């Protein structure tokens, strides 16, 4: 492998899937090259063909998929049409692939050791030697105590550990090319950050070329050198990552970047831009520019002539007739503001939660999902709820709504106590508190039409019946920008964004005063997400509704929230105005969480590594629940004494033994120093350095 | 074990169904005095819970009571019948399990192609046909048309194992035809699920050849649900025996239950039904144990 | 999901019934379903008009006994001198009344119990599940024989017994489907509209578990025919002098040992086979289309 051939060279690749007797084009003339040691990012929204490209490279297209034209060369060897034996040799030696769900990528009934050892056994090693090599492979991906992990089964490992094992297997053969297909999408932010760090480190160790597939522009910015933007199976733009993110030359890239709330954008400073329309259906024949239908710059020529790949610089190319004006793409959504959103916190709070606690009992174990959470919310306000999985966000929301009865604590509406169970609440109380769920597929009854869903909600929540119903229905639909023609459809026939609009309409049928938004945009593509966020902001401005907004996407939370609450293991760790929580001084957990999120603008925050895994809510740590992972652990006091939640400064509450001034100093130092991203977590109880900068 | 207790409750319920046992046994023309005397003798004029307690008590001491019809202990008649039935069931079982698993896995590997359609549809059709019909077709073909196999199940006394098996082959095959489709369908579904999984893709992308992927990665996971199904099918197997044993005139537990029912021999009927239930429960218990032994997720969940 | 094909986004449709029509269209194109449906239709027709289209009276014993196949008696005659062909044509009548009614009873009862136990869970669910386990421990034939001996056999008892045995089995299928459904957010959403439990169960959840119920119904119908035929063969089901197929076989199978007179059993046997296979073809076709 000394020849200078690039690691991966794809030329004019066409892939079709045969669906219902017809060939549908999934990839159109895709060409890309990854040189040795390079990391290439392939980005695009769902359905653009990213994964198909990856599967074509490893020769694992679905049985109805076929390469109809073009070539794929891995380290100089053509892999299209390889015979069984040669293909196996390629997979055993040259190419590895890691995909999204590590739990499913590992065989549930084979021990980790044997699964990893298999990679070596294919290459001729005997079992004892292979197991030895497997142990080394696990050690290289920084798994503590690899010897004991060898004997375990996948279900006994956490998601992050499982993904490390998968990466260890992928790298064990020292492949020329490593394909990563959304490798961290199903992981929590802090775990994702660790896995990304690990990949970066291993890449430089192994000199492996990487094809990194993701929808997350922040991850691309952090991980890749060059990036290709895929739209409807066509590579529409390609170039160095900095150029693409800062000087995009294709309207799709431009639009995509504008959809993402970034750099501290907030709802009171203007709306997000959106990309109108939908991805073309795979049934559609596309002869001209694939993006023309959704492009604000499109001219006649765009609908008739396929744009060639224009070279802008030596390494930057765009498939747009008007690439020079791409950045002048007119906004699809005007930037103008709604009415002012000032929140008046002088009166009785709309919602007052005190000491809300929920302990689930599961097979004799007590799971402390929520522990003494208190908070208040005023009309027209948005409270962002942030935390990793198992932090109690959803339990909190469900307890408010009465879907689960809390073990302890009260929920007050306008100063009046609400019964804990939904079935005991009056219809008036039910209508006031509503929810928008994460997954609209699950939230809408797939057997009912949109009209039926909305009529029923108007009937129950607004007590409207008879002739007035249809008029109100149309009004409701138009308030969420849902065209009338969709009313006769069933949810299955609608796109994700449209479904979410129906779910929002249902929640708003009866003039709610508080709507819980439980990750309402995380199942959606970014361009759709922007439109939904805009809609929520607009409805809030019109109706002074309050939101509890749950999300793991900190950019989104920052955009929409007035105040932010940070949860960890069911406890409120920090609560304060959005700007304060984001800009600090913040709780050490918030600090770590913020540092873990890769941003498009890159850098800024020093990466803080958290020690270990999120502890089980069935056996929360003593003292401060965060002490086992805290990088600012003070030692004994944190391990033995749970810090109280106190107001450390005006309307900013925090649960930490470290005084706020101390945190301010420490964190200012951290962020200005631009420290290398691996300050090892202090495991000993070192006293805080009292340095003043 | 709650299962066990509750199933006994069901037996008790079935025991109480036939209102007046004495009248039923003696028929409509017996004097009411005789009926009462028989009821008293049988103890069925006592309160229900006393009868139930008494019944359980005797069961606990392995005393199944006397047959109303034959006036001998039920156990002495049921014992040999049960052994005969188990012989037949074993023949059927040994035939059907490998056949249906191989068929199901093969169909899954050729999914959507001709072998799959043939196996699936054949299995489906065979399962649907009542066992006495399949048995009669088998008799017509193998017994009468081709004259290969004996058309009765009971071998001459003192015959060796091979002869016995030969006699059991036709009734066994009739049972196989009923069970094949169901087990094969489970095996097929499990295999297809495993074939579509991410871990199978991982195995292929490691560079393993198809045979290794199937034997090491797919089968291990795909056959787990099949084991559970095989156990529940034991219930159907024993149920099928009633009809098959009558048809082949074979002295098994099914035949016993049938004649007991015809003769209104309630103690015999009760015990026979209980034994069938116990066989089924034992089979599911064995399957549960096997399943958890083979499935690390359960094996370790219990330990943690 | 290696077979994932990019989902077509937002298809605009003006007709709400398109989904349903699509299902029917797929059924119409399914060869297994069509074949099964045609055979069933044929036997239903015979069950209704069998005595009218048959060349002879199926109950008439005045013909020569045990005649072989001939032009006058295409399927021969049985040992009582009845025309087998006429009896086969008329023989679907009783089983096509008993089996569907028993199935209906089992499906309705099982659906209600399955919905209630799956939706509420808790103590009721535990108790019902135990009873289901106990019932499943006994083969249908054994339970039916026991109960029929106790209560005496009538057509109604056969229907009720089979229906009652099916109820827990169906309830288990429905319960499993309901358990999966109640996890979905639309159930929580409908509670948040203030809907009462019966509404949530029957209007929200039931339509979504109809597919497994329909498939279960066809599968159960197959088993019901299986069971009725078995019971009849044992003498506990349809009673003489009905020309029922299983009864014909029960009457004549002992003649087989002599090696002759095969026609007295073969034709009713083939008739039963064609009916049960047809029901299962329909079940298979439905399952394939509905499980998408």
Which structural category do the helix and sheet elements of chain B fall into?
Answer: mainly alpha
- Measured by DSSP, the beta-strand proportion of chain B falls in under 5%
The N- and C-terminal alpha carbons of chain B lie at a distance of 23 Å
Reported for the largest beta sheet of chain A, the result is: 8 strands, mixed
- Total beta strand runs of chain A: 24
Total helix count of chain A?
A: 24
Outline of the structure:
Helices cover 33% and strands 22% of the residues of chain A.
Structure, explained:
The complex is a heterotrimer of chains A (693), B (304) and C (292). Chain A is built from 24 helices and 24 strands. In chain A, helix 4 (112-122) packs parallel to helix 7, helix 16 (450-461) crosses helix 17 (467-479) and helix 16 packs parallel to helix 18. Helix content of chain B is 79%, strand content 0%. The longest helix of chain B is centred in the N-terminal third of the chain and has 36 residues, at 74-109. With 292 residues, chain C is mainly α. Chain C contains twelve helices and no strands. The longest helix of chain C is centred in the middle third of the chain and has 28 residues, at 155-182. Chains B and C meet through helix 1, helix 6, helix 7, helix 11 and helix 12 of B and helix 5, helix 6, helix 10 and helix 12 of C.
Q: What labels describe this entry?
A:
heterotrimer, B: 304 residues, mainly alpha, C: mainly alpha, disordered N terminus
Indicate the topology.
The complex is a heterotrimer of chains A (693), B (304) and C (292).
Chain A: E1 8-19, E2 22-34, E3 39-43, H1 50-57, E4 65-74, E5 77-78, H2 84-93, E6 95-98, H3 102-105, H4 112-122, H5 127-140, H6 146-150, H7 159-172, E7 177-181, H8 189-206, E8 209-214, H9 217-223, E9 226-231, E10 234-240, H10 241-246, H11 251-259, H12 300-304, E11 310-313, E12 316-318, E13 351-362, E14 365-377, E15 382-386, H13 393-401, E16 408-413, E17 416-417, H14 427-432, E18 433-436, H15 440-443, H16 450-461, H17 467-479, H18 496-507, E19 514-518, H19 526-543, E20 546-550, H20 554-560, E21 563-568, E22 571-577, H21 578-583, H22 588-596, H23 636-640, E23 646-649, E24 652-654, H24 660-673
Parallel strand pairs in A: 3-8, 3-9, 6-7, 7-8, 15-20, 15-21, 18-19, 19-20
Antiparallel strand pairs in A: 1-2, 1-4, 4-5, 9-10, 10-12, 11-12, 13-14, 13-16, 16-17, 21-22, 22-24, 23-24
Helix pairs in contact in A: 4-5, 4-7, 5-7, 7-8, 16-17, 16-18, 18-19
Chain B: H1 2-16, H2 21-26, H3 32-42, H4 48-60, H5 74-109, H6 114-128, H7 131-145, H8 161-195, H9 198-205, H10 210-222, H11 224-247, H12 253-263, H13 266-294, H14 296-303
Helix pairs in contact in B: 1-13, 5-6, 5-8, 5-11, 5-12, 5-13, 6-8, 7-8, 8-10, 8-11, 9-10, 11-12, 11-13, 12-13, 13-14
Chain C: H1 18-29, H2 31-53, H3 84-90, H4 95-120, H5 122-136, H6 140-151, H7 155-182, H8 185-191, H9 197-205, H10 210-234, H11 245-252, H12 263-290
